[in-house]
Amino acid sequence: MSYSAKGQLFFAMTPTADAVNWDYNWHWYNGAGLRVVTHMQGGTAYVPGLTWNPAGNRTYYVYDGSDVSMTLVRASGNWRIHQRFLTGGVDQPLAGWFSNNSGSSSQALVLVTDEQGSVRAAVKADGTREGNAAYFNRSPFGSMEGASGTGAGSTATNTETGYTGASSPNSTGGFTYLRNRWYDPQTGRFLTQDPIGLAGGVNLYSYAGGNPVAFSDPFGLCIPWPACAVAAAEGGAEIGAAIGTVEPGGGNTLGGVIGGVVGFVGATITAGVIVHELSDRQKAIQGVAGQLGVVADHLSRFANLDPNDPEGPNKKRDWVKDMRRAINNAYKAARRVGRRTAEDLRRQIGEAAEKVEKAAQDLQQ
Fold first, then answer.
1. Distance from C-alpha of 365 to C-alpha of 362, rounded to nearest angstrom
2. pLDDT in tens, 138-157
3. CA pair distance 347, 173, nearest whole angstrom
4. CA–CA dist 300, 297 (Å, integer)
5. Strands (DSSP E) found in 66-221
6. Which residues, in sequence order, are CB contacts of 269 under 8 Å at separation 6+?
7. Peptide bond into 226 cis (omega under 30)
8. This prediction's pTM
9. Residue 2 β-bridge partners
10. How far apart are CA 226 and CA 230, in angstroms?
């Protein structure tokens, strides 16, 4: 695999369900980071320096909001409309007009999904199943079970509706596109870190908080509120447990405060219209979380410092300075959000500040 300068997946070579064949995909993105072009080829081996072959299929994606509404294919210099989708919401494909891989025929198909939104069958106008559109059972994390073939035959129909109904270029393997990053159903993990950092949980690569049966993550950012905030707060409590010796019983409290702020970032992003670039308000909230993270890190160092370290007092004084500076920066960041949000953040910052001053008082004794 290779990535762009912005960390977006550019080239991927992935196995198909046929043991000797592979899918080669190249992806291009627009200025907002949204995938708009995918070039697909097949082969049996990786060739160093492999580049796309003009004879392969290049798909152009047209969006209606966050969902693909239509795809155009350019194959051997010829253009055609390949797919048109009717959706019921984000990653909820209901039906569409689909061409086969060669473009020699097209038809209307109704898409039947399972409880996770993954398409399990395509039904023709006469009520019978379309046999040239291959779908397979999936595990809860989306890996295919009992898949066969490559789905690349000229008469095959690839609706590109994969795990949870999200866009998947390849029929019997490959990755799933979740707008801000790509997901690997075979491993149950994202290929890259969460672009919103710890606001999406303490595991930067996990999908849906490790619970894909209850949650989905169509934007590759965060499991839905309130689960996102709960997961982040639990992670913050784990951090706090490590600093509990600063004030017995207080570590989990501070960890919960930090986790709550981190979770609040995720909630703020998830509750609104999710875009690829965070708003100034969301960046400000994330800034508060980052500064409180500095406080948590330094308090953890307080707790774990060797009492026999001759430089211990000097280190603690430096850490107190850093933490006080972080608290001031957190207050400044909180001023850049709405009044009600700022009040909530100031309250949580204040609780963290009390812990810092308690550590400073212990240092003076």
1. 5
2. 999 999 887 776 677 778 89
3. 49
4. 5
5. 67-75, 78-87, 93-99, 106-113, 119-123, 137-138, 144-145, 176-177, 182-184, 189-190
6. 196, 199, 221, 222, 278, 282
7. yes
8. 0.65
9. 11
10. 6
